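Allow me, if you will, to draw on your knowledge of protein folds for a short while. A protein sequence and the structure tokens that stand for its backbone fold form the material at issue. I would ask you to consider whether the tokens describe a fold that such a sequence might reasonably adopt. Thank you for your consideration; the sequence and its tokens are set out here:
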Amino acid sequence: MDKTFGKKDPNLDYFDRPGAYLICIENGKLACVRTPKGYFLLGGGIEGDESQPDCIHRECLEEAGLSVTITCPLCTADSYTIHPRIGPFHPIQYYYLGTIGERVQEPIELDHTFVWLPLEEIETMYVPQQIWAVQYAMKQE
């Protein structure tokens, strides 16, 4: 399943930014990180020739110090937007189902706090694409 948010303006040159994210739902709660901006799925931008699963593993270590197990790909969402610093922005987000393992190191990103967000509160997440992906995951259960 794929979903696009916003409309591409053919007159703009968008910065494409692929990223990979983990969706882990356990006991009515979603694994995510709280930052000064709000709640986000664990994951982030793909670096270099990194694979999507490798990105998720790295980001989970950096953001929360957690090992994770990725079980399967779920869906993709992208959006066309204007970012305040970047300008025309096209994030392409790949979502995977998985589970949270043990804490194996201290997080590197100190403004990120790992939390279990109750599913009733997913609408408070910062990124609409991530809300959509979590809702899609919930329908698959």
Observations:
- The mean pLDDT is 97.
